[in-house]
Amino acid sequence: MRCLWGLVAAALVMTGCGGPHPAPVHPGPLSGQAIEVLAVWSDEEQAAFERVLDVFERRTGASVTYVSGGDEVPTVLATRLAGGSPPDVAGIAQPALVRTLARAGSLVPLDPGTESVIDAQFAPVWKELGTVDGRLYGFVFKAANKSTIWYDAGQLGPGFVPPRTWDGFVETLRKLSDTGDTPLSVGGADGWTLTDWFENVYLQTAGGAMYDRLARHEIPWTDPSVRTALQTLGRVFRPEYLPGGISSALQTEFTESVVDVFGEDPQAAIVFEADFVAGVIAESTSATVGVDARVFPFPRIGPVSSVVSGGDTLVALTDEPGTRALMQFLAGSEAASIWAAQGGFVSPNREVELGQYPDDSTRQIAEELVGAENLRFDMSDLMPSAFGATRGDGFWRAMQDHLADPAQIDRVLAELEAEATAAYERGDS
């Protein structure tokens, strides 16, 4: 095994300077070996990832099969593990699930070679996200910068200057509303968009240490810091700022909220969400990212630049030479650069050159993600999924309740605390 792994590592190093389209290597050091990867990506994302895998196959001679589990990756993975046939590699969006699987013995710690790549090319915060009880089990391959505000440059005009502060953002919305516009599109039917709003505001109003404590339920959801964040958020969730008012926002899904800004019949000029908004723009509108569709950082409330991130953590479930070789390849900047050049992708790997990204907006998003002074992972994905990531329940529903009636803040806080307590006591993942 060691000899074969040495040959694989040598093959990866020797061809590492060949760019994203190396000449085929046949037979390679992994000829005849089959590797299976399970992750969420489908359609255009699947095609982009499979191009990354093509490079690895040509270089090593291995055969890699990709399986898209969509939103059901946790269920598919649980079924495969129960049946004794796990994939070799899986992409998992929830760090809480990574912890659960690692502690259950279902994951294989990353080998020293892969860990050295992560040490060299990722900021320490990203390594911490993949570490469970002192051992490194995974790394975020495809990240999301969830601290981005998108706007239609045509609607707002050439003189528009993106606001840098929360007060400036509120003032921008007020001025646009005063002219008769409804400036802000909110996809409230998808509760996760509202939790993303809250997480950005909470990180800036309460700070990183309190964010971590709330995510671990070391402080209650009735804490004054939560009230402060909800009250701050209420300054932009005003009916006169939203097309159709609050009731319409609660019926608007995420994709529709983007189309309502960049589609043929715009209802608003501004929408908040992560860099994956670019994919919706490309698929559902005629707008061009970086030209019509532009972006600015989530307005500052606190003293430092803060970014809430999400992403898919790649983990190994088998201890085979092919698995180890693929994990090391995917951890490196070359693999990330291959997808970056195709668009619809942001990497936390700080050695991916900004020039690899296809437009100015994506380059800006990537630069803010890598350079953030205060970065935290999506709180919903850090918490038990029964509370943090269940459609129509828990955190998602409570945020919808708050949007529907901000005057009922005491009831919402009590609801959040009761459901969080139950989920953590059950030990849900």
Automatic annotation (TrEMBL):
Protein name, UniProt field: Carbohydrate ABC transporter substrate-binding protein (CUT1 family)
Family the UniProt entry places it in: Belongs to the bacterial solute-binding protein 1 family.
Extent of the signal sequence: 1-22
Oxidoreductase recorded as keyword: no
Keyword Transport: yes
Protein species of origin: Pseudonocardia hierapolitana
PROSITE patterns: PROKAR_LIPOPROTEIN
Keywords: Signal, Transport
Taxonomy, superkingdom: Bacteria
